[in-house]
Amino acid sequence: MAKIFYVMGKSASGKDTIYKNLTERQPQLKQVVLYTTRPIREGEKDGEEYYFTTGERLNELRVEGKIIEERTYQTALGPWSYFTVDDGQIDVKSDDTYLMIGTLESYEKTRNYYGVDLLIPLYIEVEDGKRLKRALEREFMQKDPKYAELCRRYLADEEDFNEERLRRCGIDRRFMNDNLEECLREILTVVVE
Ligand SMILES: Nc1ncnc2c1ncn2[C@@H]1O[C@H](COP(=O)(O)OP(=O)(O)OP(=O)(O)O)[C@@H](O)[C@H]1O
Ligand SMILES: Nc1nc2c(ncn2[C@@H]2O[C@H](COP(=O)(O)O)[C@@H](O)[C@H]2O)c(=O)[nH]1
């Protein structure tokens, strides 16, 4: 039976950094690419970070019954949707190990879709002050920093990742990302059994 490791955590907790490191160090992990209608950013490639698509295509996929989960945020730059599609990337009957990245909400819905036995959560945590500092430093480095969007995300995380939701989703282990190498070492004890 397939296994799906699901990386999640609040904004700037280090999910992307951890995801990339895991795929480099553990090439047997198959990457599952999600979809978004948000504009592609400088340095991103279609099919790598996401499949960049349109609201019209999202509608078609809805009609085809292929949407596993979707989220739309009223961002400081307009509505952006992110979604997971049953597009053949995951073969549940195989013995493959997959790596996905998302939010607590997307994790919960993906788990409901594929079943609790397939999904293994990798919840990344960083103390809020440190996380905000990392988010700000990352934004500062951008050519066109979007500070309002950063603040919206930071505040939304409070509600989206509240303790009651974490409990409901069965998140009983947290991987602290103070030090990247230590965090990866801990995660690898779960990923490489
Ligand atoms: N252990 C660490 N120590 C210091 N900086 C880190 C560490 N892990 C990640 N970072 C940095 O923190 C910032 C946020 O990391 P990253 O972009 O991976 O977070 P994310 O959770 O994917 O964020 P988002 O959900 O907002 O896209 C990046 O600039 C990254 O280089
Ligand atoms: N829990 C929340 N997640 C949010 C919110 N706005 C966006 N997001 C999630 O973040 C990533 C966006 O990543 P990026 O590649 O566009 O930097 C994606 O998984 C969204 O679902 C929010 O308000 N709350």
UniProtKB/TrEMBL annotation:
Belongs to the guanylate kinase family. It comes from Lacrimispora algidixylanolytica. GO terms for molecular function: GMP kinase activity. It catalyses: GMP + ATP = GDP + ADP. Residues 2-192 form the Guanylate kinase-like domain. One of its GO terms (cellular component) is cytosol. Essential for recycling GMP and indirectly, cGMP. This is Guanylate kinase. Pfam families: Guanylate_kin (PF00625). Keywords: Kinase, Transferase. The keyword Kinase applies. It comes from the Bacteria.
